[in-house]
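lol ok so funny story. i was supposed to be doing the assay writeup but got distracted and ended up predicting the structure for this chain instead. priorities right. anyway since i did it might as well share w the group, maybe its usefull for someone
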Amino acid sequence: MYKILKTDGLAKRGEFETVHGTIQTPVFMNVGTAAAIKGAVGTEDLQQIKTQVELSNTYHLHVRPGDHIVKQLGGLHKFMNWDKPILTDSGGFQVFSLAGLRKIKEEGVYFQSHVDGRKIFMGPEESMQIQSNLASTIAMAFDECPSSVASREYIQASVNRTTRWLERCKNEMNRLNSLEDTINKNQMLFGINQGGIYDDIRIEHAKAITEMDLDGYAVGGLAVGESHEEMYRILESVVPYLPQNKPTYLMGVGTPANILEAVDRGVDFFDCVYPTRNGRHGHLYTNKGKINLFNAKYETDDRPIEEGCQCPACKHHSRAYIRHLLKAKEMLGMRLCVLHNLYFYNTMMEEIRAAIEAGNYSEYKAKKLEGFKENDKR
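and the output, tada:
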């Protein structure tokens, strides 16, 4: 159940009720691909850094440890000791990005595991069955994520197939939720809008999937090579054709600036590996832009990563110390950087929600974007 509490232009401040708790939107989902946030971050850490939703990956958990093992152990929430919402993506993106050898057919996709090369088949029903075994709060529909440079003809055929697959996902999800041994019988299904950078294909697809009356809708296939301007243009075209009374999720996006711009275009849900991946490489987000702790100028810098930040890294450690840990390849360095970046993102989402509630989102966005440029000017 999704409820809009306040709007400011196209920006929406909402609440999304789930069986694992209510999500305050706009929200950034923290990515824990294999049921863990990379960088030695546990679920007890996530509770401390304001994480609302954890995101795990269907394909990776199917390959190892195996979704049947997760089901046997009580589902993903129990397995990883997390009591808040979890979204699982369908495995579609990984099938297309990781698998060099694959065959896409109407029934689904045949491909080889990137771990041990074994042959795997995944179609809409299989993806739903795996996600049901994982017992996530929100399951994503199985779709094809075509390349951003694919031809118009290819993208149109791919989108048509994704629509047919979505119908199959919905039917299978309904069946699974009615079974006696299903762990989460209230699992929700989000459909995914595709269409590359073709506005008309995107809009037609949005209309078609809206008719299926799903729990939420994602815009997929962006942040895969097109420019930021093209991404914003697609959002402006397609979001008005997705249901206003359901959450809108922009998949795999993005930078803090991307998020600020997408909220302004009506997006509620986000996820991205940037904060964790960049953190592991010593690249840290601040309100004055990104800093790279490997730079020599931080060698004797006894300030926190960001003055006033309440994350575990900033409260207890200096830039100089964390830089030393990274240089010495101590895992604690990576961990502290990842915690800071996720705290930064989660805090920014809190500020976004407050700004929409106060009706001054455009001023907040302008000020935030201006601040991000400060380190660039030095």
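Residues 2-272 form a domain with the TIM Barrel fold (CATH 3.20.20.105). The mean pLDDT is 95.
back to the writeup now i swear
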